């Protein structure tokens, strides 16, 4: 008989410690928005320098994602998450002690290595540990922690705004880094990785912590069956047409997540609000409320994602975000930055974008990509797709200040409206719904659909 209390305690620990990397992801990408308010004044930064400082963490993530993803396939998910916690701590200390913009760019790149690894491995780890019936909800907690990290970064920015202590803004990330390191000491390895390495008895013991004996044996049977399919493994597997098609799909999903334009809100929201005439400290305060709303919306996503499905939430997200950005662009053309635009269009529009990103592309894209790749190359394939996400992130973060200075905020919003309509069309016509299916059933579907043998 299942010990439900033990099961819930174990799942809570997996979610908490497994997703601390998401919290650091959110904090380290979000804190730069608050710090830039003061760094720009101290270092007299040009738009190009702002782009370089903001984009350094993204370039690091582009490198760190495949690096840590490959290591996770070889050495396991758990030890690599432990190492990433150490990199987060070192990078945070380094960023807090800089004496030049060059040094800041270097340390933000180091932080990016861990951020990139966390963005690929954390949702994959949670998906592999979760029972099928709640896999979407458990994987959503990575996004909840990312939002929590964003809230903490904006609270830190708001609290330290009066002193302008941007060094402490960076240094505070050491605390969750230590929690991540200590937490992973007691966490279990992914049972799927263990079975792939022939350690079935160890995997069974881990699965029994969160599943009934019947569910455990059924899951092991499915994993062993999918592993029995002839597979090259490693880079040779990427030559197969079925994996190339899935990789394109996963890469586009994560690229389109960035093309929603949401991250321009995370990186530049204080700057945008100041440009609307709102005082610097009040702008950071609004950002705190903005990020807090994301936690509530993502909790709602966790409640419904295994019922509604990933695909429908992504479609709704594209439509609502796109038309909000269109409305904001039209309002700016008509009213400019006066009180009518700010109070009746801009702020309500930003709130709706926050809600529908969190319930759709924010969580849904990471859940979807953590589910679709075959077990033998899941770490490498997931991290390869994540590279596309970070390329899109870099593209947005690097070009937006230049776009803002050249065509203005209204046309910038309009461009992202068009991109959201493209992402809606792709999602509607191409994505396969994964809710209610085991990871092995999903792998079997794609192998059959794209011509690879199943059960050979």
TrEMBL record:
Main location: membrane
Family annotation (InterPro entries): MFS_dom, MFS_sugar_transport-like, MFS_trans_sf, Myo-inositol_Transporter, Sugar/inositol_transpt, Sugar_transporter_CS
Membrane-spanning intervals of the chain: 12-38, 50-68, 80-98, 104-126, 138-160, 166-188, 246-271, 283-305, 317-336, 342-368, 380-404, 410-429
Membrane topology per record: Multi-pass membrane protein
The Major facilitator superfamily (MFS) profile domain, residue ranges: 14-435
Keyword Transmembrane part of the UniProt annotation: yes
Keywords noted in UniProt: Cell membrane, Membrane, Sugar transport, Transmembrane, Transmembrane helix, Transport
Entry protein name: Sugar/inositol transporter
